[in-house]
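Structure ticket #2291
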Amino acid sequence: MAIRNRASLIILSVWIGLTMACSFPLFNLGPNSGGGGGVTAVPPQASPNVPSAPTTAPPTETSAPLPSDTPTTAPPTATSSPPMVSPIDKDVACRFGPGDVYSIEGSLAVGQTVPIQGRDSPGGWWYIQNPGHAGRYCWVASSATQTQGDTSIVAVVPPPVPFVDYVGVDLSPSSKDIACGTFPYTFGVNFKIEYNGPITLTFQRIKSDGHTAPAETYTFSASGTQSYLDSYRVGATGSYWFKVQVTSPNSISGQGSAKMTCH
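Resolution: structure written out below.
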């Protein structure tokens, strides 16, 4: 009877041990446990890599923006065309300055239309490029012309300063042969001075024999040509000249010559 109770006790002890073994994690005796009795936990076995589901939703398809009929930048605005001028019904004189007191430098013919480059302060004349002389300018009367475009944008141009533009001197005759011993002989001198507007003119007469006349000054209220007569008396053969030197309003001169011989 005692043997049977001992066997029953052993079986009960084994059953309890198995039950406890299933209730607690397994431990390994570590080789470095520090002297018998230390235990280390057995690391869990890694699970195989299984692709995980995406953490964010895939992008949804969107429509591309359609072209807009409205431009993103404004188109350039058209600039005003330059005002133009043309004759009304007949050719128009183109003058050196804005007024009839200035010389005629050309003309704007019927059928011609040219850009307006400026105007005078009172507004009665248009400043244009001379149709007959490239690089030069002149003025046409607004009363004899018609315009196209916005003339309010035309700038005021000051009138030009008139000046002497030509001096011509002639000795007559240009050569003379006379009998020797019949000197002196007198050449006729004719000179002219042209100017393109109202001026105060100053000039001198100079001869090749060294004679210089006093300065002469005249005032003219409009453009024009002034002609003068003079003479040159010589007493021997040779070549002679007569010069007119303008000093105001600008410096310009003219000179004529003649030859004297005898037989």
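Closing remark: The domain at 84-153 is CATH 2.30.30.40 (SH3 type barrels.).
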